[in-house]
Amino acid sequence: MKKLILITFLIFAITAKSQEAKSLTLKEAITYALENKADAKKAKLKVENSEYQIQEVRSRALPQISANGGLTYNPILQTTFLDAGSFGGEKGKTIEANFGQKWSSTAGLSLTQTLFDQSVFTGLKAAKSTREFYQINDQLTEEQVIERVANNYYQVYVQRQKLNVLDNNYVNTNKVKDIIKGQFDNGLAKKIDLDRILVKISNINTQRQQVLNAVQLQENALKFYIGMPIQTKIIIPQTEFQVTPQAISEIPNTENRTEYLLLKKQEQLLTYQKKADQAAYYPTLNLSAGYNYIGQGPKLPWGAKPSDGVYWSDFSSIGLNLKVPIFSGFSTRAKVRQADVNLRSIKEDLNDTKLGLDLAYENAKIQIDNSIITIGNQKTNAQLAQDVLSNTRNNYIQGLASLTDLLDAENSLTEAQNNYTSAILDYKLAEIQLIKSKGELRTLINN
């Protein structure tokens, strides 16, 4: 029985620990995402894979060595008819001769070495640029993960703040209900007033359940975007949402942005592609060499000796192979022109991307300014709504205000608080865009 109690206690403790909520700051959420999210992992795998691509291209410039072997059985040997005079016999007389042996077996080594191939040299440069491309792409993927996590992180905050507003509203409305119920019990309030406040409480409960559902959905989305198990409970510290106005400096150099650098690297790769197509105009020169051993006879050569009629001999060769392109049906010219069109196209993408990055910076800066003004206004409105509600509640208790006035004051406070929360969200989202436009998203985890 003691063991059973102990096991039950341990299971309960483990379960309770697994259900313990995890405090999650923005920095921790981003760091977790970069370590666990599939997008970030796959980008790093592409960088690793680029090393193998370089090795593959480099292999074309290294010697290619292979071993070969074969076994042939000739059931019927080829017959050739020759003039006997060629062998000192009677001229004009034809003799019949069989060439070859019933069995033959070869084994050897062959080597080929590229001495000159312009496409190989260009391919090596392109492979190194491909590695740099994936390194930049890895950086861009990290920035995209950071942006996505930060946006969803602040969305969770908004939903939780709305839940807090409803919870406070629920507590305050219950206090009013207790007052009205006391007045009703003493004959100082009408039943319709009590019914109205009960309806109000029921509506708050319904709204709270809807917002609670939205909170859970948004938290699940956040956990998905950072690669965290959905069952994990999280707590977001309130200090994460202090409004600290960003310093608006001079327009950042968009040519240093990751998106722009990635396109520039693509342009470089397309340039190498054009050079690789042009390499088809150049001749190629290869060295080849081989050494072989051959056994022939009427029997299977393996393990046989000259006494069995099987003889072994070796032979070798060394050669140079030169290939000079003369006419390819304009295929090479077409490929070069296609590559040129692709280069012109990506130049347009570069111009458009630079314009879009400049636009994003200006829009973020405007949104930051507007959000700061809106936050100030909504904070003042929320404070005024709180004062109005306090005065209206006191007046209602003293019989100087109607229940309608009190309910309207509560609704106004709820709306003002939600507007203030939404204004902070707008600011935070604009702040992320401003940081992104300056190419400083990684500062969210370095600070």
UniProtKB/TrEMBL annotation:
Q: Does the keyword Transmembrane apply?
A: yes
The entry assigns this protein to a family as follows: Belongs to the outer membrane factor (OMF) (TC 1.B.17) family.
The family database entries (Pfam families) matched by this protein are listed as: OEP
What subcellular locations does the record give?
Answer: Cell outer membrane
Protein known as: Outer membrane protein TolC
Lineage, broadest ranks? Bacteria, Pseudomonadati, Bacteroidota, Flavobacteriia, Flavobacteriales
Q: Name one GO molecular function term.
A: porin activity
Presence of the UniProt keyword Transmembrane in the record: yes
The principal location of this protein is membrane
InterPro entries for this protein: OMP_efflux, TolC-like
Alphabetically list the UniProt keywords: Cell outer membrane, Membrane, Transmembrane, Transmembrane beta strand, Transport
Question: Which N-terminal residues, if any, form the signal peptide?
Answer: none
- What would be one Gene Ontology cellular-component term for the protein? efflux pump complex
Highest taxon above the source species: Bacteria
Give the organism, scientific name.
Flavobacterium xinjiangense
